[in-house]
Amino acid sequence: MTDDPLVLRHDADGVATLTLNRPETRNALSGGMLRALLATFAALAGDETVRVVVLAGAGPAFCAGHDLKELRAADYAGAYVDALFADCAQLMQAIVHLPKPVIARVHGIATAAGAQLVASCDLAVAAEEARFATPGVNIGLFCSTPMVALSRNIAPKQAMEMLLTGEMIDAATALRFGLVNAVVPAAELVAHTAALAGRIAAKSPLTLAIGKEAFYRQREMDLAEAYAYTRGVMARNLEAEDAHEGIAAFLDKRAPSWCGR
């Protein structure tokens, strides 16, 4: 153990880059790491200077999932396990509910709850050598909570293949499954992700927040309910100053100036 922060944060040009900082454990999600991430996302929710978040990992991997050594050291105590999995579930929901897009920047491995992190982010960019798995079945512990995010990202049979075999898939397969948006050479990973984050950060922060919330809410509805809900969202969105500015800028053939209202 070191005194280094478990989560590093770097802000630039409206983009906050969060780096999981336990490289010696391949950034395993210990109780401390989960609490640090929860605190960081809570702070980001109200930070008007940040428009996009990038989630990355230090060292040789993105995230290897839960810290099995910590679980065993706690003797799998019920209260400890309940609190750990509650914090993990809260983190994944905090990512979804954050009113700013979150992009996973994946290198090395993203396994078990690490794959869950990727699936919980709004977008994901992977290095060509990245690998993904939900390998709990191999150690007698089915990846039930990672399954929640995974099954909401990829087709059921592909999700079940990952969950039932526990085998690694490569980045190209993750792209084909829809788990990631792009696969790039490792040397281009940071620049590609930064460029994507920059393009999104240039949009109206209010519009991004409205759109992200609406996306996740409507997909749990039936078709008629979804259209009724999103009709209201668009009508309210049209009342915003940024919508008026964006339409005027488009018609005037100029760049918009967002105010976030």
Automatic annotation (TrEMBL):
Q: Which SUPFAM superfamilies match?
A: ClpP/crotonase
Has the keyword Ligase been applied to this entry?
no
Swiss-Prot/TrEMBL keywords: Fatty acid metabolism, Lipid metabolism, Lyase, Transit peptide
Kindly list the GO molecular function terms attached to this UniProt entry: enoyl-CoA hydratase activity
**InterPro entries from the entry?**
ClpP/crotonase-like_dom_sf, Enoyl-CoA_hydra/iso, Enoyl-CoA_hydra_C, Mitochondrial_ECH-domain
Q: Does the UniProt entry include the keyword Iron?
A: no
Cross-referenced Gene3D superfamilies, in alphabetical order?
2-enoyl-CoA Hydratase, Chain A, domain 1, Lyase 2-enoyl-coa Hydratase, Chain A, domain 2
- Homology family: Belongs to the enoyl-CoA hydratase/isomerase family.
Q: What does this protein do?
A: May play a role in fatty acid biosynthesis and insulin sensitivity.
**PANTHER family assigned:** ENOYL-COA HYDRATASE DOMAIN-CONTAINING PROTEIN 3, MITOCHONDRIAL (PTHR43602:SF1), PTHR43602
Its recorded name reads Enoyl-CoA hydratase domain-containing protein 3, mitochondrial
Origin organism of this chain?
Phaeospirillum tilakii
